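Cross-posting from the modeling subforum.

Setting up a comparison between two proteins and wanted a second pair of eyes on the formatting. Protein 1 (sequence, then structure tokens):
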Amino acid sequence: MKWVIGWPLLFLSLFLPEPYREQSLAVQTIICTFYQKMYTFQLVTFFFVLSYFVETKLHHILSVQILHHVVIVCTIIVQYMEPKYQYFCWCLVGWSTRWLGSVNMYAQPVRTLLKCIVLLLVLKGKWRHTRQCNLKDELKWCWILFVHESLCVFLPVQILYEVYSNRVNVLIV
């Protein structure tokens, strides 16, 4: 159901005019409540609904855009270095998106759709199956939705870190 109805309805909401966008998001959130286990589409739905209600403004001033991206980069670094402050940082990203945001998810639906596809590919890649991932782990990757596509050059760095950050104790006989 999540692939048959959930994801397509979420993607469709990007292209629908009002009030249909709101109605599709409402149906999407209801679909999310059917699942007891947390899935990626629920996290992405949360960010879509948050973006819808926050009504981010696009800022075209370079210094404002740079500051917003610095906040997001710091959030991801804190997510890895000091996870106990991750909710503080994500709250900061939410406000930064509102005040300093350079990307509005609904203003350019094709861009957002492509970002969602990149996010899905990253979260469902073969390398992610090496260990059990939860929603907190997937939250680390949601920066893809809030930044300009050019920052996706950092994806390989983050993927390599995820793959090689876990130490494996090998007993040599």
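Protein 2 (same layout):
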Amino acid sequence: MTFLRKITSKLNQFKIAEAVKKILMIVSLLLIGDILIAVLGGPFLSENVGTFLGKSTATILSDLLFLEGAVAFAAGAFLTIALSYRPPTESTDAAAQPRKKRIHPSILLIIIGAILIGLSITVGTLFV
């Protein structure tokens, strides 16, 4: 946990928007988790799991990143489409007040998915 606190304190030093901080934290945690799975579980996966039979650690990492990215991108796209069909609501005085602009979580999912797919292509191109 102290490692994550150090990363968070380093990110707090920069003047970065909250959405960018969330994206960086989520992508870095997924990347670290995928690297650990590929390195520690790579031999097991390449011997026993049909999808990964005979694949190298870099290929397994690239496949995991792509799968996670595709799921996140698709979930974000489906949520965005589903939420766009809501009927309009009547505005009240409280709703008319200016609010701090925030990125919708479904858009964050699309961005995270695109980043993970890009990392998958990068790993697949450079290391395979």
